[in-house]
Amino acid sequence: MSLKKKLLPCILPIIVLIVWYLITDGLGLVPSFKLPSPIDVCHSAYTIIMNGRLLDNTISTLIKVFLGIILASIVAIPVGICLGYSKTLDSFCSLLISILRPIPPIAWIPFSILWFGIGLNSAVFIIFMGCVFPLLVYTIDGVKRTPSILIESAQTLGASNGTILRRIILPSAVPYIVSGLKVGVSIALMCTVAAEMIGSSTGLGYMIQTASNLMDPGTTVVGMLVIGLIGILFDYGFTKIQDKIFW
Predict the structure, then answer these.
(1) 50 within some domain
(2) What is the pTM of this model?
(3) pLDDT tens digits along 159-202
(4) Considering the domain boundaries, does residue 147 fall inside one?
(5) Checking phi first, is residue 210 left (phi over 0); if not, alpha (psi -120 to 50) or beta?
(6) Per the structure, how many domains does the chain have?
(7) Within a domain: residue 104?
(8) What is the chain's mean pLDDT, rounded?
């Protein structure tokens, strides 16, 4: 990739940063309590980095995200493979999945607090509910998109259903499963922040909520930026995995 293509994505963020500085510290068009300047955000970032708050809350959020995604994968991938492979099971479960899938994960927060209390378990449950259905749908779609000619050829050669599933269907569905994980991570981060704001005493969402209550917009923006950075890192990782799979 040429240097020009590498630098191109950085141009718009730099423009946004310049405009942000101009309307806050530069020209004073927006007061700091409504929108902190980049300098205020840097000061807040330095403070919470030095006192350890940022690291502690980031680790807490990442633990919840990983646990939620792992649990969602344990449930969604095997179930998705079964539903994609069996038309009977797919028809049997399709109505229930269609009813539950559009429900926003945030709507489960009252039940998560009632069932698990305030803390780690409650947040992980919300993340699980946000990730499980996208991953399930992608897995089902990946299994169904397996070229039928490959399955028929294997059956003609006498391959068992287990062999067909292991050697043909699973490799064909892997790119779709990775895409589902990629979508699931974005949803997981949104769910985590929402859950931490309401049902947790640690994490970036809790830090953002606390900073907002204390009229500390600089820390709020730092939390938002860290969440965005985590999303970029996850997206980059899954993109690299997809590139290797499709290569």
Answers:
(1) no
(2) 0.82
(3) 777 787 778 888 888 888 888 888 888 888 888 888 887 767 78
(4) yes
(5) alpha
(6) 1
(7) yes
(8) 85
